[in-house]
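Late entry, evening session. Most of the bench is empty. Finally got around to the prediction I had been postponing all week. Sequence below, unchanged from the version circulated by S.P.
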Amino acid sequence: MNSNKIEEIKVSVIVPVYNAEKYIKKCVNSVECQTHTNLEIILVDDGSKDSSGQICDNFAHNDDRIIVLHQENMGQSVARNNAMKIATGEYFVFVDSDDVISPVMIEKLLECAIKTDSEICMCDFIMFFDEVYFEKTKANSKEKIYQGKKAIEFIHTVPGEKYVVLWAKIFKKSLFEKITFPEGRICEDLAVLYKLYYKANRISEIDEALYGYYRANESSSTFNLSEKYYKDVYLALDEEMDFMQENCPEYYEFAAKTNMYWHMDEYRKLFRQKKEKKYRKELYKEYKRLYYISRDLPKEKFYKYFRFAPKVYSLLKK
């Protein structure tokens, strides 16, 4: 497809916004200045109590590509679902309201997706705490292409956020048919990504960091691991295990091993706080069940240490 045809492709950029007045201007500015200009930018004000909603309206007044939805505070999942209902682009890009993107991110991802006939294309990201500076873009980025299902394995075997978050990716809109974000839950990315990877025939990557991930926002759901965070992670992984057992059994044990890790992590946290003794026993019991399910996968030594001496391991592990 030539460059003129690519320019004709509309991309919907979805940005949920909640109490983001400190960050939203930089975020939206970085989207507005994309080299791929055929955009539909959907800002969803999720019942913000600060001036975020007004800031979004001001942006829409000055840029006719921007649509603003205002809703009661119902969470990021509902915000994304409502945006997808009205989105008219052939592709979706998701951006968090405290993050920024390189001016060429959408152009690069879209070009790669079309060139490689991929339903999903992703890039690397830069973690930042104050300002972010993207390196000069490469004339010829290296590309990696693989079957969509392979990314399910990467969710569970590659450290870091790359394969477990919606951002820093472009998705063919058709992938989201019959897939929505679970409402009332956090960790919603984890609950849908494996389904998207499963549906994708081909996924591609480019070796450039084109997304800026802001890590100093203490209101972010990933900044503090709450009781609800753990429960929603368990629910997402239990659902994934059921899905894999039925549709993709070769990855069933991978989901079980990740589930096992999070049970260990919460146990350690509660042990150090000297809390929830009865609940810790339940966590340990479930850990052993998941350990057995994933018994054929190679495991780091700490999994075995915890299995035989959870209290000693929790006490010694920093």
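Two things to note before I forget:
Residues 252-273 form the longest helix (22 residues).
The two ends are 53 Å apart (CA to CA).
Will write this up properly tomorrow.
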